[in-house]
Amino acid sequence: MNRRTRPANPPSRIVPAILVLAIAALGFTTLMIRLEATREGYRLSALRQDIGHLEDQNRSLRLKVAELSSHQRLRAIAPKYHLGPPERGQVVMVP
What we know:
Order of helices and strands: HH
Number of helices: 2
Largest sheet: none
Shape: rod-shaped
Strand content: under 5%
């Protein structure tokens, strides 16, 4: 019968423990990176929505400015404020 001899030093448990910790840290880091990328994606989506809303609002306000400053409208409301064409000599041209 052949008896097994025990090794003098038991196998080290440090190397497998370090390996498990490294794999766990790598997994956690990957998870955090993906989570941050997802958050940034949602943030970009919200910002794109805000940009679209602000562009629509800007378009609407430009249209309102054009309507309010139209010559036809100004000529129609000028008599209400006692405004008329300038008299001779009221307009001075600066060279």
